[in-house]
Write a structure and sequence with these properties.
Number of strands: 6
Strand order of the largest sheet: 2-1-6-5-4-3
CATH topology of the largest domain: Nuclear Transport Factor 2, Chain: A
Distance between the termini: 73 Å
Oligomer: single chain
Number of domains: 2
Structural class: alpha+beta
CATH class of the largest domain: Alpha Beta
Radius of gyration: 22 Å
CATH architecture of the largest domain: Roll
């Protein structure tokens, strides 16, 4: 059986071609500093949040979907700033401002789901992010699946997209403005006016 010392130098390379032994010999503080500098530089150059920022945003949208579909109003509302705004389809002029109004919207939708006898599952994905680690606009696919408890019917209830203004407060991401929009295959949404600019409030 070959020992570690008997392995070739090729076996000791990481996928980038750098020697793991040389990397291990580099002081950790220098490595950490270079990694942080690279992340900051990439963020500044591309106009996107750092990897850590993007992970935080993914967690925000994951908590949104789980709390919505598992009927956790407290968790759902905690994802929005106290003065946040929700626009449910701009063409309907349907706007909810503040957590109390957003909570009413949440309960209205939960009642609709229960009346239909359905369980709902929402997907929010394919995020296109414009901004930085302090705040950004996120464009996301939004697909809404259902399963009916009585008929056992399965299906897609709607296909839409989200436009969200997200801000980082104390290291945590929150929704400042949030909108649900009908699907439009004619133009990418970041070339359009922001949904909340279309209605009063």
């Amino acid at each position: 059986m070959a020992t570690r010392d008997a392995m070739s130098e090729t076996d000791d390379l990481d996928p980038s071609g750098a020697s793991r032994r040389a990397f291990a010999a580099t002081p950790l503080a220098i490595v950490a500093g270079l990694a942080g500098y690279a992340a900051d530089a990439a963020s500044a150059e591309t106009g996107h949040p750092s990897a850590a920022g993007q992970y935080g945003l993914q967690q925000l949208f994951a908590r949104y979907a789980w709390s919505y579909d598992c009927n956790d109003e407290e968790l759902f509302l905690s994802l929005f700033l106290p003065d946040a705004v929700v626009v449910a389809y701009p063409e309907r002029n349907e706007l909810y401002k503040g957590r109390e109004a957003i909570g009413g919207w949440f309960r209205f939708l939960a009642g609709m789901r229960d009346k239909e006898g359905n369980d709902w599952q929402h997907d929010a994905y394919n995020h296109y992010i414009v901004g930085d680690d302090k705040g950004c606009i996120v464009y996301s696919y939004a697909t809404h699946f259902f399963s009916n408890r009585g008929t056992k019917e399965l299906g897609v209830r709607s296909a839409a997209y989200l436009v969200s203004e997200c801000v980082n407060v104390g290291g945590a991401w929150y929704f400042r403005r949030f909108s649900v929009n009908h699907w439009d295959r004619g133009q990418v949404p970041w070339k359009k006016p922001l949904p909340w600019e279309k209605i009063a409030g």
